[in-house]
Amino acid sequence: MKKRDRTPRTYTRLTHPLVRDSRDEPFRRATWDEALARAADGFRRTREAHGPDAFAMLSCARATNEMNYVAQKFTRVVMGTNNVDSCNRTCHAPSVAGLSAAFGSGGGTSSYEEVEHTDLIVMWGSNARFAHPIFFQHVLKGIRNGARMYAVDPRRTSTAEWAESWLGLNVGTDIPLAHAVGREIIHAGLHNKAFIERATTGFAEYAELVEPWTLSLAEKVTGIPAAAIRDLAHAYATAERAQLCWTLGITEHHNGTDNVRALINLSLLTGHVGRYGSGVQPLRGQNNVQGGGDMGAIPNRLPGFQDILDAAHRVKFERAWGTEIPPRYGMTLTDMFEAMEHGDLRAVYCIGENPAQSEADSEQAIRRLAALDHLVVQDIFLTKTAEMADVILPATAAWAETDGTTTNSERRVQRVRAALTPPGEAREDIDIICEIAARLGHDWKFADSEAVWNELRALSPGHFGMTYDRLEEHQGLQWPCPDLEVLPSSFLHGRLWESDPELRGRPAPFGIVAHDPPVDLTDDAYPIRLTTGRRLDSYNTGVQSGSFASPLRRGEYVELCPEDAERYGVVVGEQVRVSSRRGTVVAPVWVDPALRPGLAFMTMHFPDEVDTNQLTIEANCPIAGTAEFKASAIRIEKLPVAAVRS
Ligand SMILES: Nc1nc2c(c(=O)[nH]1)N[C@H]1C(S)=C(S)[C@@H](COP(=O)(O)OP(=O)(O)OC[C@H]3O[C@@H](n4cnc5c(=O)[nH]c(N)nc54)[C@H](O)[C@@H]3O)O[C@H]1N2
Ligand SMILES: Nc1nc2c(c(=O)[nH]1)N[C@H]1C(S)=C(S)[C@@H](COP(=O)(O)OP(=O)(O)OC[C@H]3O[C@@H](n4cnc5c(=O)[nH]c(N)nc54)[C@H](O)[C@@H]3O)O[C@H]1N2
Ligand SMILES: [Mo]
User: Fold this and answer.
1) Ranges for the Molybdopterin dinucleotide-binding domain (predicted)?
2) Any atom of ligand 1 within 6 Å of the Cβ of 174
């Protein structure tokens, strides 16, 4: 077995542009002028030889709204394609798709503060204590104010420790659980008949759909005792106000959008939406992943979440930008990797994403990236993806070195400001994109980030009322904010409660979705269910957190419950071989009673030491394109003593 270097890799900031003439050569330092010209030339050549759709942009969910606006404008105006996407695809795209289908808008319905003033909080597939610690402070205040909390998670997480009841379900059985909760509510006569009648459609079909999901059948499929399911149903239906929050435990499945619909159904059944203190909340991942989508850095929406297929929207942007916009959706991140496989995608401009380590089945992802004709990476660190590039452009860090705005999960747009001096020759993301645009014949004059924001405001009605001055004055504003005087409501869809049908608008349809177990089945060869996720002390692919030297830094482990550790005869710290149908990694064991027999947990935080995504399966949600990071089948083997020593 190959000897492994386990010393943490150190990431230092990129300080000057790097280029190389061929992929076998090392990078050499270049002037900005040379690097920008090379980046632009490659894009021009690709477009001339293979057409606009051979290009794709990955836009940074950590950078500002203004940067995301400019990145999607570059894609649509300079390159002539809608192929722009970001890590939203790996994460909450199912939430956006599910919320849009139900309510016509992809945003979470409530504000953070509302969990402080609610009666019941359900944390469903969300470990907010680790992954959303600021939101979790509001949850704790809610609990102190008397709210009850339920947690639905295969692991007894740090979040679940705070709950009155933990429902430890089998991975991928959220639809059976949600349907059983729905059925129980209907059978107990606790559904909100007036709200259902007035504000929803499809109830009869929904009632029929959930009818087979008795408590005892759901207990068999989910592994949760029937009494606990019944208790959740009654608590949710009888609460005066209730907040249903979910994250990746729901979305990172091959049927993520269906999972989201199944949860939204419960809010429609009980009327827990569109009122202060009652709503549905996907807690978004990156600091500005909500804003990136709002700015149009997604393949199906123009800025302001305006549908590309709607001719009126296109015409508005075509006039403003002086260009034609292709009247079709572009490629999602998932489609892009598929298109690389077939040679249809030839050039990628990757800004602040690390797909070589964050995509499911990373060996396959790396092979596909390597086949590109032209890869430009613009980042603050030399990532694994950057190492594969032709041109590397050093950017400033949006959260500390750049002016602009970002938008959080409660749709609040807030100002960020440059507080630190960027290292070396690093330049702002927006400047770099504009320099490349200029070399391709588009000379945009943005004096500063506010000029970009004002262009967006003029084109997106929901942002029009948010001038920089007003954002400053109110410490951020939530969209939709169409008016320069009136302050926006803190929650969405109050309209559903209006008695006048005109004001009420489109009713919310129940989602008719069926249980569909994980694609990667466990069997005798791969008997363990692996789920992957996060820890409090590290961040995503570890680029921004992996290199810190601290006693808290544990590095990667494969976590097992005590019973399984005993069954495999392994102890804490012992190296094991972990294999899936895609690949094999070696990792030390951690034993944690928060897990249940047959379940293992790993993170994505230390891919330079243990590349967990070699194990995960690229089985995607057909609606949202999100991969099933939460359910792989693995086998664990003790290593022979000699292998451990090497
Ligand atoms: N400290 C820290 N915070 C972060 C990040 C980080 O890397 N580190 N990353 C940010 C990003 S990009 C995101 S998207 C968010 C993600 O935030 P979360 O989604 O809360 O984080 P995860 O740990 O990926 O997954 C949440 C939970 O889903 C559970 N789960 C797994 N399978 C299932 C299932 O089938 N059903 C249910 N109900 N639950 C299941 C897991 O056990 C896990 O506890 O965090 C953000 N915040
Ligand atoms: N196994 C497994 N894999 C997963 C997941 C999982 O739960 N399990 N979760 C998925 C999810 S939810 C996500 S969001 C993805 C995350 O996947 P990625 O977004 O690919 O990974 P990050 O590590 O967050 O990469 C962020 C990059 O942005 C750069 N950056 C930060 N700020 C700036 C800036 O201002 N400008 C520029 N130009 N660059 C900047 C950082 O240096 C870093 O290289 O991973 C996905 N992969
Ligand atoms: Mo994410």
Assistant:
1) 529-631
2) yes
